[in-house]
Amino acid sequence: MSTKDLSSSVSPSSSRPSVTAKLINGGVAGLVGVTCVFPIDLAKTRLQNQHGKDIYKGMIDCLMKTARADGFLGMYRGAAVNLTLVTPEKAIKLAANDFFRQLLMEDGMQRNLKMEMLAGCGAGICQVVVTCPMEMLKIQLQDAGRLAAHRQGSASAPAPSSSRSYSTGSASTHKRPSATLIAWELLRTQGLAGLYKGLGATLLRDIPFSIIYFPLFANLNNLGFNESTGKASFAHSFVSGCVAGSVAAVTVTPLDVLKTRIQTLRKGLGEDSYSGITDCARKLWIQEGPSALMKGAGCRALVIAPLFGIAQGVYFIGIGERILKCFE
């Protein structure tokens, strides 16, 4: 799960925080958000990757089976990758967003929805430098439990020779993977391009998300604009961010499903590998039907809405500004 666009979900105010404060706010919001909603994101990844409903019947069933098999911490497989990379992800996004705002708007502060949308899209494009490898590693760790359950169910069947793996040798096949091991194997065997598998699909998901989210949030938030305070109330901005984020997340779910399938390196018995976005979409449509493109849509809405709500809280409280004041 990438915590994208959190920094851009705040309502405009007359006193804008500094770049450093925004960076701190974005980092704190990302860290808190990932910690709160990561189990739901894990369920989303596993539901999107499974063919049919052989293992998990839904989000609750997935979380219950994961907790029984791996304990409470098993629901946080892959969280360390997100927690480690969320701050540099925010740094790139915030710096790029400020740059594009200055470039596209006369003073960087004048409100213009089209220009803000373009600035957000530009920042999202720059952000994938971190987002793509982060989600690449996270998905392998999140999906490991599903593969273990799939392997147990198919213990009597021979392993498919075409299945690709990020580990080599039979001794390492059943070891619990780590982000370091996966990253090293990808760099050793495929070079830097291995960490950026699915880059096109990531861009194809994140750009439409920004295009939908920015104008929708701005319009919803403006409905609660208070002339006396010069901004919408916290509650209104909170709800606006949740609604806009959820709508955008559900809308781009088909692209997220394609990205997840393409970035998953290890496949279960009978599961296809994909040569690209078109090949993945074609096989998914033919073999599993159009409904498969909406797998995990509910989970995505439940993940994105709290992330934007938490971001609103962090920015309105002004955690970054408070921390900076301590060093003045």
From TrEMBL:
Localization annotation: Mitochondrion inner membrane
Gene3D superfamilies: Mitochondrial carrier domain
Biological processes, Gene Ontology terms: malate-aspartate shuttle
Catalytic activity: L-glutamate(in) + H(+)(in) = L-glutamate(out) + H(+)(out)
Skewed-composition ranges (Low complexity): 153-172
UniProt Solcar repeat ranges: 17-103, 111-223, 232-321
Membrane-protein topology: Multi-pass membrane protein
Record-level GO cellular component terms: mitochondrial inner membrane
UniProt keyword annotations, A-Z: Membrane, Mitochondrion, Mitochondrion inner membrane, Phosphoprotein, Repeat, Symport, Transmembrane, Transmembrane helix, Transport
Pfam families according to UniProt: Mito_carr
Main localization, broad class: mitochondrion
Alphabetized PROSITE patterns for the sequence: SOLCAR
Record region (Disordered): 152-173
GO MF annotation terms: L-aspartate transmembrane transporter activity; L-glutamate transmembrane transporter activity; symporter activity
InterPro entries with a match to the protein in the record: MCP (IPR002067), MCP_dom_sf (IPR023395), MCP_transmembrane (IPR018108), Mito_Solute_Carrier (IPR051028)
PANTHER family: MITOCHONDRIAL 2-OXODICARBOXYLATE CARRIER 1-RELATED, MITOCHONDRIAL GLUTAMATE CARRIER 2
Function: Responsible for the transport of glutamate from the cytosol into the mitochondrial matrix with the concomitant import of a proton (symport system).
Membership in a protein family: Belongs to the mitochondrial carrier (TC 2.A.29) family.
Protein name as catalogued: Mitochondrial glutamate carrier 2
Origin species: Mustela putorius furo
Gene for this chain: SLC25A18
